[in-house]
Amino acid sequence: MPPTSLVACESCDLLHQLPRVPEGHTARCRRCGDLLRRRPRNGLERTLALAFASAVLFVVANSFPFLSFDMRGLSTQTTLLTGVVDLWQAGREAIAALVFLTIELAPAVQIGLILWVLGPLRFGRRPWLLPVAFRLLRHAHTWSMLEVFLIGILVAMVKLLGMASVVPGISLWSFIVLIGVLTAAISYFDPEEVWERLEAGP
């Protein structure tokens, strides 16, 4: 008989004795139909690959020009950190710190923690400080707001088109792809499967 665990539905609080969910299947609440567990095929392997891709895209997004402006013969290039530095120098330290937290620190922590957990697990080793890593990953996911930042950038670009020539840089395209890849990595990441693999042993 497969092992079972008690799982409460987040929508209606109904307790379920949930057996091990096979790969490629989902488990839903008997009362309200809300999702209890989703286990994609090769979920951890896909998550690890997507996390590596996110790390590369994050480095590229921070290493090249984000936008280039050409107004009356004067050209200016910006990077992801330019706005943070400008806000800090303008005396808006709190806003600069918040922007840095949501578009730099939180996504970097997300990517790093996924690699921290799944890298050793891929080679049959137990990740160090796993419970702490899970708690930090949850907080980092809450503070990561790449999509909000991108919407703000697009709105600013539309407003500037009438005053200057705006050229997207390779960093912007990497940033857009990073949002999709990191979102996919988070959606595939299944903490329950991590614990199951640790219990099963090498």
Question: What's the overall average pLDDT, rounded?
Answer: 86
Biggest beta sheet summary: 3 strands, antiparallel
Number of strands: 7
Unreliable segments of 5+ consecutive residues: none
Helix content: 55-70%
| Overall geometry | elongated
The tally of structural domains comes to 2
First-residue to last-residue Cα separation = 22 Å
Radius of gyration over all CA atoms, rounded: 21 Å
- Provide the structure class: alpha+beta
Overview of this protein structure:
The protein has 202 residues and is of the alpha+beta class. The chain folds into two domains: 1-39, no CATH class; 42-200, no CATH class. It is 59% helix and 16% strand. The chain contains seven helices and seven strands. The protein has helices at 43-63, 80-89, 93-122, 130-143, 146-160, 170-188, 191-200; strands spanning 4-8, 15-19, 25-28, 35-39, 67-71, 74-78, 165-168. The strands form three sheets. It has a three-stranded antiparallel sheet. Strands 1-2 form a two-stranded antiparallel sheet. Strand 3 (25-28) and strand 4 form a beta hairpin. Helix 1 packs antiparallel against helix 6, helix 2 runs antiparallel to helix 3 (93-122) and helix 3 crosses helix 4 (130-143). The chain is elongated, with a radius of gyration of 21 Å. The protein starts with a strand and ends with a helix. The model has no long low-confidence stretch (mean pLDDT 86).
